[in-house]
Amino acid sequence: MLVSPFTGGAVREILDTQPYTFRGEQYDVTAPVYECVDTGEQFTTNEQDEEFLRRLHAMWRARHRVPAAEELGARREELGLTAREMSALLGLGVNQWRQYEAGEVPSNSNVLLLRMVCSRQGLAAIVAQQEHELPERTLRKLRKALLTAMTPALLQPVSHELSREHIMELLDRQGGALPLGAYMTQSPAQPNSVAF
Fold first, then answer.
1. What is the pLDDT of residues 56-66, one digit of tens each?
2. Edge-to-edge strand order for the sheet containing 42-43?
C-alpha cells in the first residue's frame, strides 16, 4: 500500500490540471497524482509521470495534426515497407521511422513529412520527388500501393494548393526551407500558392 512520503500516512489518487510549456506552447494537462490526506501535498510516481507525458504528447499531436504512433505503423504495413525503407523514403536517419512508430515525438521539421506520407496525395508527391533515391524494389511496392488506393479521379496529376499564409507557417516550422516537392506557382485562379 502506498503511503505519503511526507507523513507516512494515507494518500488518495486525484486528477490534477497543471499548465505546462512544451516546444514553446502552453498546455493544460490533466493527469493523475497522489495527494497526502494529512497535508494536501501532491506527489507522483514514475507511472503517473509517464501518463502525464503521454497526455501532453497526445495534446501536442492533436493540435498539430501529427499522426499517432499506431497510425504510422499501420501506414507502413499498408504500404508493405520496412521501417528502414520508410526512413529512406522520407530522407530520415536509418532508425528514425522506427522511433516514431515506437511513440517518439517527431521534430517540428518532420511533422509535415509524417502528415504527407499518411495521405494518398502526399505519398504520391513524396514518391515523385524521391524515386531517383529509392531502390527499385521499394519503388515497386510504393507504386503498387498507390495504384491500389487510387480511383480514376485520383489518377490525375497530384495537386494540392496551399494558401500563402499556410506556406509561411510551413516555412517557419521548416526553418525557412520549402517542404519536399513544393514549388511556387503563379496562376490567375490561385496567386501565391504552392503546388505539390
1. 999 999 999 99
2. 11-22, 25-36, 42-43
Gap between the Cα atoms of 84 and 113, Å rounded: 16
> What is the rounded end-to-end Cα distance, in angstroms, of the chain?
58
pLDDT of residue 115: 95
Q: What is the CB-side half-sphere exposure of residue 170 using CA atoms within 13 A?
A: 19
Residue 188, CA atoms < 13 Å, CB-side half-sphere: 0
Which segments of 65-188 does DSSP mark as H helices, in order?
69-79, 83-90, 96-101, 108-117, 120-130, 136-149, 164-173
pLDDT at 94: 87
Query: What gap in Å lies between CA 179 and CA 113, rounded to an integer?
Result: 8
Residue 12: closest CA among 40, 53, 51: 40
Least confident residue range of 99-103, 143-147, 170-174: 170-174
Q: Are 124 and 159 in contact (CB under 8 A)?
A: no
> Residue 21: its pLDDT value, please?
97
Residues in CB range of 95: below 8 A, 6 or more apart: 83, 87
Q: Phi and psi at residue 170, in whole multiples of 5°?
A: -65, -40
Examine the pLDDT at 174 and tell me if it is beyond 90. no
Residue 100, classed as helix, strand or coil, is helix
**Domains along the chain with CATH numbers:** 11-64 (3.10.20), 66-157 (1.10.260.40), 159-196 (no CATH)
